[in-house]
From TrEMBL:
Domain Integrin alpha second immunoglobulin-like: 38-190
Main location: membrane
Record's bilayer topology term: Single-pass type I membrane protein
Transmembrane segments: 424-448
GO MF: integrin binding
Species for this entry: Stichopus japonicus (Sea cucumber)
Keywords, sorted A to Z: Glycoprotein, Integrin, Membrane, Transmembrane, Transmembrane helix
UniProt cross-references to InterPro entries, sorted A to Z: Integrin_alpha_C_CS (IPR018184), Integrin_alpha_Ig-like_2 (IPR048285), Integrin_alpha_Ig-like_3 (IPR048286), Integrin_dom_sf (IPR032695)
Protein name per its UniProtKB record: Putative integrin alpha-6 isoform X2
Gene Ontology terms: cellular component: external side of plasma membrane; integrin complex
Length: 499
């Protein structure tokens, strides 16, 4: 029903009219007549239903299961219908966790709701909840078919410690509803984070050399006097697909051999060279002797100097290993002593350049220990072990746990190896020289076969007879004959004789 009000614009406000109807203003107000025929009141009945699309797995609790990193695009399908009379000022409100990012409506939404949803806003009484309001109409009439829309949410950055996500959908109106209980719908989706975290260790140099001067603790004043520098990096990769908010790396660091002598001497705490995180270490293991650290332009090699007479080394040391023995210094087999330290790494996503963190360790090989105890060893290998684990391993599922541990090795080479025994064997040099000579002879023969060493010219020898004009006596001479120009130069003359 439509009412049209007509009035004189001047007299309506108390002015004097000039006769006739004059200028008219009109206002059109629409009323819905059908819903008020019986009792004069519109009573509606809105029904809301919702479900998650494309989630095929079910959790142990019976709820739909979303795997972060796999089901990154969470789709919520919402249906709404009006089974009774018109609903006035009808809206649909969707509440969801702020860990999700609203990505808009999927194509194919009903025309009535296709462009009716506003931007997400934070709920006033819940900081962790976002609300989207979609305007249904004023009035929202009864329709023969349901209105449907699919709302998309980006779940890629849901933290690993979030185990459930809740949704609340509600239809509101200003008039009475026959069954308010079906105006709302609550949904819960259980969350499981799936990823693969890998640990890789590597040393900067696979060999460290010891030798030269032996210094005891009492006379070492500078870092470079301890021994060569050992640098090691541990890299944690998040292979994805889910984000990992926190992992813990534990390193078993060998600092002593079994007789209590220094093995690797750490002056400063390890650092997180790349990524977000920090390392925790018992400071009682750092620079125990109180040696002055090098600040800049540090040499990776040990500084050599003459052995001090007041710090003698007894080469008949009972700890000296047998000559020619192979030694492995490893805490797992009891040949070294280790202390543990941990590094916490945070916010490892599966995106490139954000999926890795690097831990840097620096220590000095204690030169005196190896000179005293391992000088006659054929080979000495030092092993360092590390492993990574989830800080919240109960809620993250790893697809592969075989790459959570790694071991780095480096060899320690003494003067007996890299001076006398570390060179190339004499028979290898002899074979190389013989092969070189054989190749040279073969090359000369090939070139000779192809005439490379022959001198090719256009000259040939010819016999020339010269006669004296007075005596008429001829004289024979052999001259070099040029086939190209048909003459040969005569020795001692400026001009050639023609044949």
């Amino acid at each position: 029903m439509c009412l049209l009000y007509l009035f004189k614009s001047n007299s309506f406000f108390g002015g004097e009219g000039k006769g006739g109807v004059g200028e008219r203003d009109s206002t059109k107000v629409e009323f819905t007549k059908e819903c008020a025929e019986d009792d004069g009141e519109c009573i509606t009945d809105l029904v809301v239903d919702a479900e998650f699309k494309d989630l095929t797995e079910v959790s142990k609790g019976g709820n739909p299961l979303m795997k972060v990193g796999i089901d990154n695009d969470l789709k919520l399908s919402v249906n709404i219908e009006n089974k009774a009379e018109h609903a006035y000022d009808a809206n649909l409100m969707v509440e969801y966790s702020n860990h999700l990012e609203y990505a808009g409506l999927e194509e194919g939404a009903s025309e009535r709701v296709r462009f009716s949803c506003g931007d997400p806003v934070a709920k006033e009484d819940k900081n962790d909840t976002m609300v989207i309001t979609c305007f249904l109409g004023n009035p929202y009439p009864p329709v023969p078919a349901k209105d449907n829309m699919v709302m998309r949410f980006d779940a890629n950055r849901v933290p690993a410690d979030v185990m459930t996500l809740s949704f609340f959908i509600e239809a509101t109106m200003t008039n009475e509803d026959l069954s308010p209980e079906d105006n709302e719908k609550s949904l819960i989706v259980d969350v499981e984070s799936v990823t693969d975290v890998q640990l890789d260790g590597a040393v900067t140099k696979s060999q460290l050399f010891f030798g030269g001067v032996i210094r005891g603790e009492s006379i070492i004043s500078k870092e470079e006097e301890i021994g060569p520098l050992m640098q090691q990096r541990w890299t944690v990769f998040n292979q994805g697909p889910a984000m990992v908010d926190e992992v813990k790396v534990t390193i078993d660091f060998p600092y002593e051999v079994t007789n209590g002598k220094w093995l690797l001497y750490m002056l400063e705490a390890p650092v997180v060279e790349k990524g977000n995180g920090s390392c925790e270490i018992d400071e009682s293991y750092l620079n125990v002797v109180g040696i002055k650290p090098c600040k800049s332009n540090c040499s990776e090699k040990a500084i050599g100097q003459k052995r001090e007479t007041y710090d003698p080394v007894e080469y008949s040391n009972p700890d000296q290993v047998d000559s020619g023995s192979v030694v492995v210094l490893d805490c797992e087999n009891g040949t070294a002593r280790c202390f543990k330290f941990t590094c916490i790494l945070r916010d490892l996503t599966a995106e490139q350049n954000e999926n890795e963190a690097i831990i840097l360790i620096k220590a000095r090989l204690w030169n005196a220990t190896f000179m005293e105890d391992y000088l006659t060893a054929k080979k000495v290998t030092v092993r360092i072990h590390g492993y990574v684990e989830m800080a919240n391993n109960s809620i993250i599922t790893q697809t592969n746990t075989n790459n959570d541990r790694d071991t780095t090795n480096f060899d320690v080479v003494g003067p007996n190896l890299y001076i006398s025994g570390g060179g190339i064997s004499w028979w290898i040099i002899l074979v190389a020289v013989l092969l070189g000579l054989l190749l040279l002879i073969l090359l000369i023969v090939i070139l000779w076969k192809f005439g490379f060493f022959e001198r090719k010219t256009g000259y040939k020898y010819a016999t020339v007879t010269q006669k004296n004009a007075e005596t008429k006596v001829g004289t024979e001479k052999r001259q070099m004959y040029d086939e190209m120009y048909n003459y040969s130069p005569v020795p001692g003359e400026n001009q050639p004789h023609q044949l």
